[in-house]
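Practice problem: predict the structure.
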Amino acid sequence: MQRLPPEVLSQAKSERMKQLEAGLKELISGTKVGERVECPICHYISPKNKKGSAVIFEDSIKCFACGIWRKII
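Answer:
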């Protein structure tokens, strides 16, 4: 098993976080605070009421199915 240098890992992590932030900003644009949307990570939608599991807050998004909590800057 090969090991990558820490610089490569930190660069990959920061690039992935930038992609995630851009996707979440795009997702919450045009939505209201408290609105339920489909989670961008797990894509869970309730089979009973056809609503998404993620809730939009003022500066973050919280999914109650997979448990992500991301602050949107």
